[in-house]
Design goal:
Chains A, B: Residues 47-124 form the D-glutamate N-acetyltransferase-like N-terminal domain. The structure is a homodimer. Chain A has helices at residues 21-30, 54-59, 81-89, 106-115, 153-166, 178-184, 198-205, 229-239, 265-276, 297-311, 318-321, 324-333; strands spanning 7-12, 34-39, 64-67, 93-96, 119-121, 140-146, 171-174, 214-217, 243-248, 284-290, 315-316. Chain A is α/β, with parallel strands linked by helices.
């Protein structure tokens, strides 16, 4: 079940850029899938797409309207409903990353049924998973892991997919969170799966494939985050990665939303190998991705260089310096079979 | 929200003992909460309680009818519905461990509403959890962990509660699965919680308490089980145990329902300390519990003795030899404050 593109990005009247973060991520990675943005008067966000209404978007070929916004509580404001109904009536599917389900709003559910259109609530998988089995399966997998949440695991995975494809590798990004699902048109929000099925959902997401095919799996949480380590471990076991990249944000002083200190990159490498070898005995780290957004250029460059020497691993900021060094390492360590 | 006792155990017409395992567990640990069993003609199970109908049970003071059975698919057979409705009409609450929700059957939902009675679907928590925080909180906690699923973690925890209370300790069993919830009247099926909230649910289950109070937490899965390790880790982080007991079944050759070999007891101790220290830096193993059901008496005794010497830890089969040695160790290592 894939979300069809091109997209119309619905921004409504969200107050600021932060509330439109999901939409911005889609534009960053899939600009060619986006026809336009739909904004209400007073909208404080701008995805730098042509402004258009439902009619113009459909006329231009839009197939899905994406409610790519976040708001406190994940609710769906009452005054957005009529535009969503209008989109369904005009022939588009609608996809949302809000906590509230589109299908739980009667007017929206009725409009979808009336028009035979699909509603995607990407935080809530409709897939029925089985429990993970841990059996080795063909195909190669690379997973991004983190010293913390929100350190660039999704961006690193997307940058890897792009660079791997540029080098002629057969690589597919595998989304495990809502923004990633919009960016790839499919995936599963693993943190919204029932706990028994975390590794099973990860196995479903990264199925048996050609021996030279790479799944590039978006990581979640951190093995060292007291809120989410269970999700991280289930994803690690289900994805059974051959390789992983550690993502890190060097200026953070405590783990996101809790008071725990950040682990070192070395601790993350050790714990990932220690726990990951259960389903892939040959798991290994192939690179380090540092989010240097808050550092100056010289400082960022020095940090990457020092880290590369310390760990003997290609180290980069994907946005600033690209991930070609990591892909180089990957190709060397995993020659085509 | 506690399930009120005394109970009437509904066995219906399940074919054999295995299907009534939940009911047997309740009788094993809470015989004094059970007034009787309700069986249909052809029932192949017997919990060794007086047979009685709904009317007799209510007259004797029964407050909840427990559907303490399992069946393929976790469905609720059509011909059980009228007895459940009868129980609600007679003034009892009804609790079920089936996958299907009692409240999803219209006749049952209506009877509950009509009579102001409560329905408990213990596989599906109605509690709203928050994400875990990992903050240290007062009170002591002991968790049972396993080399595999179904190796005696619940029985060990219940035996510990009983023996700790006998030694005058203030101890409460904390249920994390359906049978345990019936046995203690409360708890949470952690494997049925949404993945994001595993450690949060475990924190809710084992809240801040008197510094000398012990939560005796029923473990789930195994850090070495590729299907469920995420649940195990979330529970470990949320419970932040001071102490743990490793449970083991010595005759098993592969992990339950998968092809992975069993880890050694040593590997489980090491991994539990390695991962558990994130939320409790002083976590330590205080004993080993071996399910020797399939061994002869001399063999069982020898295995416990040899294991105790190898690990330097009290080692026992809770059913066969009791857990006093482990409680002794616990008292020595954690003197009252």
């Amino acid at each position: 079940m894939e979300i069809a593109h091109p997209y119309l990005l619905f921004l409504g009247d969200v107050p600021d850029d932060l509330a439109a973060k999901t939409a911005y991520g889609i534009v960053d990675w899939r600009r060619d899938w986006c026809l336009g943005q739909l904004r209400f008067p007073g909208c404080g966000a701008d995805a730098e797409l042509p402004d258009m209404g439902v009619g113009a978007a459909v006329a231009a070929g839009a197939r899905t309207m994406i409610v790519g916004v976040v708001n406190p509580g994940g609710v769906l404001p009452e005054h957005w409903v009529s535009t969503i109904v209008e989109a369904l009536d005009a022939g588009m599917d609608v996809a949302s990353g809000l906590h509230v389900r589109l299908s739980s709003v009667p007017a929206i559910a009725e409009a979808a049924a009336r028009n035979g259109r699909r509603l995607f609530d990407v935080r809530h998988s409709t897939e029925r998973f089985t429990t993970g089995k841990g059996t080795r399966r063909p195909g190669r997998r690379i997973l991004t892991v983190g010293t913390d949440c929100s350190v660039g695991k999704k961006y690193t995975a997307l940058a890897l997919e792009k660079a791997m494809r540029a080098r002629g590798l057969d690589a597919d990004f595998r989304a495990t969170g809502q923004t990633g699902i919009f960016i790839s048109g499919r995936g599963v929000s693993v943190d919204a799966v029932v706990a028994d099925f975390i590794s099973g959902a990860a196995e479903w997401l990264t199925p048996a494939a050609d021996p030279n095919h790479w799944d590039v799996v978006e990581g979640q949480g951190s093995l060292f985050h007291p809120s989410f380590a269970g999700v991280t471990l289930g994803l690690l076991h289900g994805a059974q990665p051959d390789a992983f990249v550690v993502c890190h944000e060097p200026t953070r002083t405590s783990m996101r939303n809790v008071s725990h200190p950040l682990p070192s990159i070395r601790e993350v490498i050790e714990a990932t190998v220690y726990m990951g070898r259960l389903t892939n005995p040959d798991i290994r780290c192939v690179g380090i991705s540092i989010n240097t957004e808050k550092l100056g250029d010289a400082e960022a460059r020095a940090l990457c260089k020092d880290t590369a020497i310390e760990y003997g691993l290609p180290t980069t900021d994907p946005i600033r310096f690209g991930v070609e060094g990591i892909v180089e390492r990957l190709i060397r360590e995993f020659p085509a079979v």
